Amino acid sequence: MKKIILKFNKTLKPKTYNLKSNRGFTIVESLVAITILTVGVSASIGAIMSSIQLVSKTENRTIAVGLAQEGVEIVRNMRDLNWIDGNTPWDLGLTDDILISGGFKTGCVEFDSVSFDVNCVVGTSYTMKLIDNAGNLYYGHDQLSPATIFSRTITLTRISADEIVVRSLVACGVNCNISVEEHLFNWQ
Amino acid sequence: MIKNRKFIKEKNGYTLIELMLAISIFSIAVSICVNMFINAIKLQRSAIAVQNVSDNGRYIMEIIAREIRTGKVNSFILNGTDDLSFQSNSPNRAGNTLKFYLSLSGDQLMFDDNTADALEALSVTATNNVVVTFLRFEIQNSTKQPRITIFLNVQSKNPPVDSQDEIYLQTTISPRELRQ
After folding, report:
1. pLDDT value of position B44
2. Which of B36, B61, B165 sits opposite A66 (nearest CB)?
3. Within 13 A of B148's CA, how many CA atoms are on the CB side?
4. Would an 8 Å CB–CB cutoff place B77 in contact with chain A?
5. Nearest C-alpha neighbor of B135 from the set B36, B56, B70
6. What is the pLDDT of residues A5-63, one digit of tens each?
7. What is the ipTM of this complex?
8. Which terminus has fewer CB within 10 Å in chain A: N or C?
9. Cβ separation A63–B168 shorter than 8 A
10. What does each C-alpha distance from B9 to A20, A23, B52, B100 come to in angstroms?
11. Rounded Cα gap, residues B14 and B19, in angstroms
12. Which of A8, A42, A70, A182 should one mutate to test binding to chain B, selecting the residue with the greatest count of B CBs within 10 A?
């Protein structure tokens, strides 16, 4: 019996030593490991979260693109009306009023979805409001209606006798600007 | 044999307190993870709703704007505020009368590319994802060079509470063809 136990101990002993030599991690090591893991995981989750949240901002850009396009179309329409009415010059009411340095002319237009206004101040951005006129909704400049995050600046610059540049800039919140540019010519 | 048993006894187990501590730390960690996961799913769902709504809104605007802009139209006929029809003389429309209107159920934007044929008008939007709750056309200078303002409200259809989304779109289009 003794012999068997001795033999048993002999075979087991090295294993026991092996186990003992496997030291665990120290508290510092495990803290460092956990910290690195936490930082890594939270950073990636943060990145995913913010990318998902940014999707909702694309909607504001979509609205802003429509409003910016409107700004350019309205100026084109004014030019076309001038032709149809036989007005001279062809850009009457657009850039013929204000002289700026260098001999070129600058003007602006603002449009409240019903009528346009050429008595605007060049470079001023006009806040778009969501107007509910007896169930008829539209973006415009009514004083009483709730303001949206959108504001529009339409600037007209004459670069030659027969060419004007229309720049329609719509601001749609932080880090969100949509700018549309079109060249209009005195050519039918 | 007795010695052997002693040897096994030397292996310490865990105390109840250690076990409870371990379980509580584990459950706190897991619940934080699960919470983050659920939040991410919710955000993802609302992101999809936003994407559907703005995709469809943009598509509607584009399809109407293109027909008006290139249509070589003599006169736009507005029936009420949400029903616009006109004869398009652009090459691919060949004089057909086109019609954009809000469906009878009041939730889809319909486009008929030829009102004279027997084919029914089709919904422009993805009928399963979004509803068009409001549509308005406004025509100005109809006797001279017209300009058409389109106003549109698109919403997600049958959304879960946390992923409701809507968009108000507006643009104005002036036809490219100068009226004689």
Report:
1. 85
2. B61
3. 28
4. no
5. B56
6. 666 666 655 555 555 556 788 889 999 999 999 999 889 888 888 887 788 788 899 99
7. 0.81
8. N
9. yes
10. 16, 20, 65, 86
11. 6
12. A70
